[in-house]
Amino acid sequence: MTNTAEDEQRWIAETLERLSHSQFRAKFQLADKDRAYARAKGKATIDRHAHEMLHDRVGAAEPKNDGRQTPWRGHPVFTAQHATATCCRGCIEKWHHIPKGRELTDDEVNRLADLVMAWIERDLVNHPVR
């Protein structure tokens, strides 16, 4: 089954809404420094970073230091991963129903990266340049 762009947008909106009900997930927002970085680098670069970080840090069947591999700060994608429960395989399993113990598919990495990017874009819109 292939998902249409409309299906993906609906899934992203519903997932962000579901995550917003978690007191822990809802508290995250980008630091001013990370917002400035995201704006300076642009969407295409941050999107590439999101794909690379998700693939490299949580894509393996058994990622190194799973549960502790995603820093809390230092890059917009790191913060977004915690906000979107894409920070470790345990959170990915709990929130996105992708089982641990097997490598993420390219489609799964792409979908999770799209979620991360939607969260970052929403943060940037909600915190315009002063």
From TrEMBL:
Superkingdom: Bacteria
Annotated Pfam families: DUF4186
Protein name from the UniProt record: DUF4186 domain-containing protein
